[in-house]
Write a structure and sequence with these properties.
The protein is mainly alpha-helical. The protein is 62% helix and 2% strand. A hairpin with a 5-residue loop joins strand 1 and strand 2. The longest helix has 22 residues, at 132-153. It is globular. The two termini are 28 Å apart.
Length: 297
């Protein structure tokens, strides 16, 4: 019963149109943008850490005023947050696991949408969604969130694995229009140091948190965990940035009992082979075993 519940939830989260088999199983044998033996394939297979890390990434992204203005002015997140998260989740899964031809077509469509997005921040600065500097920040924070969530709550990753994760994603980032992206842990740290003073406390961040805490995203039996998982996401934001953007600084660490609970759930998810998981479908497309990514390491 638990497996069926999780399979249905995951299918709804990353496959709102009900065509996951078509998206991830065909064309048969076609490789993805990222290799099946990559660190990225192991990290993104875990729906719990991807959920937690995705919230971390969005918090960092929205704290950059131009990104925050662009997202809040030009997306439907406030009105239809679950639908927006579903579309974002599907795009992420297609980027990692989808056949190369489908992933490239999807990315081209996203780029066409970005080319039309123009706006201004509250203090009058111009906003362009295709600005390479903003694309670099969005890409880097996404990588940071997903990697840190897996590292903190699923399995600690060695520095070489962490560097490989960032390096693997750089060709994909260029497809999205980011001309310069961090390719290792050290360059991520340098970017965060450089961007720190540009990040701001804002109503956008506060509103986003209020939405993700209350929206009915998780299955009903797991919904009491939603606030705990949001807390797990906030705890991954570096303390100086948490302080700067109003998330509590060093005080916003996750209580030990909650950290153990999140870790238990995330590690269990890392061993659960769900037939609706895009990672499993991608393995089938390439003629690999369903549990190829779930073998003990």
């Amino acid at each position: 019963m638990a497996r069926r519940l999780l399979e249905a939830w995951l299918a709804a989260l990353v496959d709102p149109d009900g065509n996951a088999d078509e998206l991830f199983l065909h064309p048969h044998d076609e490789p993805a943008l990222l290799a099946a033996d990559s660190v990225s394939w192991r990290v993104f297979k875990n729906p719990v850490s991807v959920y937690i890390g995705g919230i971390t990434a969005v918090l960092l992204q929205l704290a950059e005023p131009r990104v925050g203005s662009g997202v809040w002015q030009h997306t439907s997140f406030r009105e239809r947050p679950i639908e927006r998260l579903q579309r974002t989740g599907q795009a992420a899964m297609l980027t990692v696991y989808g056949p190369r031809s489908r992933a490239e077509a999807m990315i081209a469509g996203v780029n066409r949408l970005h080319a039309r997005v123009r706006g201004t921040t509250a203090d009058g600065r111009a906003v362009r969604a295709e600005d390479p500097a903003l694309l670099e920040w969005v890409h880097a924070t996404a990588c940071f969130g997903f990697l840190e969530a897996y590292h903190a709550y699923v399995r600690p990753l060695a520095l070489a694995e962490r560097d490989a994760f960032y390096r693997e994603s750089s060709p994909v980032a260029r497809l999205y229009g980011a001309t310069s992206v961090p390719e290792c842990e050290a360059t991520i740290a340098a970017l965060f140091e450089r961007m720190g003073t540009q990040l701001e406390r804002s109503e956008v961040v506060a509103e986003f948190l209020a939405i993700v805490r209350r929206m009915p995203l998780l299955p009903a039996v797991l919904r009491p965990l939603q606030r705990v998982m949001v807390g797990a996401s906030i705890a991954l934001v570096p303390a100086p940035i948490r302080e700067r953007i109003g998330l509590g600084g060093a005080a916003a660490t996750l209580p030990a009992a909650q950290r153990r609970l999140v870790g238990t759930i995330a590690r269990a998810a890392d061993r659960l082979v769900l037939r609706t998981n895009p990672a499993v479908l991608a393995c089938r497309r390439l003629g690999l075993r369903d549990d190829h990514l779930f073998a003990r390491r």
